[in-house]
Here is the input.
Amino acid sequence: MESETKSPKATQEKTEPKMDSKSQNYKLHAKNIDVFYDDFKAINNISLGILEKSITAFIGPSGCGKSTFLRLFNRMNDYIDGFSMNGNILLDDKNIYDPDLKVEELRKTVGMVFQKPNPFPKSIYENVAYGLRIQGIKDEDFIEERVITSLKQATLFSEIEDNLDKSALSLSGGQQQRLCIARALAVKPSVLLMDEPTSALDPISSGKIEDLVHELKKDYTIVIVTHNMQQAGRVSDNTAFLYMGSLIEYGDTQKIFTNPEKDRTQNYITGRFG
Ligand SMILES: Nc1ncnc2c1ncn2[C@@H]1O[C@H](COP(=O)(O)OP(=O)(O)OP(=O)(O)O)[C@@H](O)[C@H]1O
Here is the structure.
């Protein structure tokens, strides 16, 4: 029978990545989180801190709660019937579930990219400008500058610079996903949540997104859900392994993939289940 703990020395502190001396605080801090869909408990008492300008991967078998947990960070679960939660999520030490907090403001700071590219049926330019326009920004020079900068950051600009008026739906899947990243960046978030952003893409497009994610780490705190363990190993600094709604292990990605504390993590990363 699989034992929960490989080493008797494994303690709770091993599930938290070490903070460097510069960062006194976590960018994001989930504290004692339970999530329910009606009576079903999808997340079971998870606490986890995420350092600024780092990439954190959530891994684990299908249905373990990765997407549910990710969506808590910009309150995307609020729309789901039957959703309820316990615990707090802090962004820069402020509780994002505070009743006074404006969700639209939160989503400016915490952007999201989904599994399937979901551009609007508008031009490439208007897709990226969208978030600025709904903020009421009217200055076209400002919008243009932001659109171009965001497309460059998302490494798409050189491929489409003569076609900004073309429909976003005419782009390839990989280009559409980079457009969705540009759209998220245009409103200047500081956190980017990515829910399996490459699972609908071919390997070359996936590689471009991985390179981009790596590049974006300079300026953003990134949390990525992935089924692809090679991808988690390549792109992330820290990895959280979830199983049946619980956080089994969390820490330095290298360590999780080469010398995990828990047998269950070892069995998952070596493909013995999942
Ligand atoms: N809207 C919902 N209503 C009821 N149950 C849900 C809902 N969304 C998710 N669940 C349940 O919550 C659990 C966690 O689901 P979640 O989608 O977060 O897992 P996941 O690890 O992201 O899975 P996958 O890798 O397959 O996307 C699952 O048992 C799922 O069936």
Observations:
- The longest strand covers residues 40-50.
